[in-house]
UniProtKB/TrEMBL annotation:
The lineage of its organism: Eukaryota, Fungi, Dikarya, Ascomycota, Pezizomycotina. This is Transcriptional regulator. Pfam families: FMN_bind_2 (PF04299). Signal peptide: none annotated.
Amino acid sequence: MYLRAAHAEANVALLQEFIKQNPLGILTTAIKSAIYPFIQSSHIPFILDLPESNDTNADNAEDRCETYGILRGHMAKQNPQAKVLMEELVATQNERGDATVRELPEEVLILFNGPHHHYVTPKFYVQTKPTTGKVVPTWNYSAVQAYGKIKVYCDSKSEETSSFLQRQVEALSRQAETSIMGYTGGDRPKAWEVSDAPTSYVDLLKKNIIGIEIQIHRLEGKFKMDQDKGKGDREGVIQGFNNLDSEVGRSIAKAVKERGDMKDGQK
């Protein structure tokens, strides 16, 4: 990810919250195979497990990695990316002579995008455009990239795999039902739970998916929301997006204001 200082976000807690609010990640792998494509990507909803301690000021890189968290997900075994992950797992286990090995040697990338992005017309830059004309179009967006080593759980006969997948699908369903749908019970509808489905049906589905787990060792965040522009231009952008009278426009306007205020507060 190209990170200009003006757009970079280094606050780990903020990046973790971004992932929680936008859990549909794009898993990208680059694994050599005689059958499957070298570079593959899949959209996967993730659970982010955070450590009890979140000390991002740890003395060494290994300790800091422990604070970034662990991403858990699952994917269909018929997915070509899952097939190459399973293929690579077998090769790694054979190379190390250890059938219990789960972690693959190559780094993977997971990209999380913000909920809204939008083209920015030069007409919004009401301070610079009339005075110099030195303005060009751009695009506002936000994104977080997570890097780490991936563990694969794919042996349907293994209790370890079954336990991982059960915990994963239960946690993912609970997160989506409560945080996304708002089904929290009480005055709200009751959340759907995995236990509501027949156990035999769930067990059958578990045999057709693999579990993945990534220990994050690097996090990068980018919020490109015109915070590098002067206050007059930012105000023009905010007004311009609000005038679109759309959910996306209002969301971008809010983000531009927030990022601009953060920039002004750092001076």
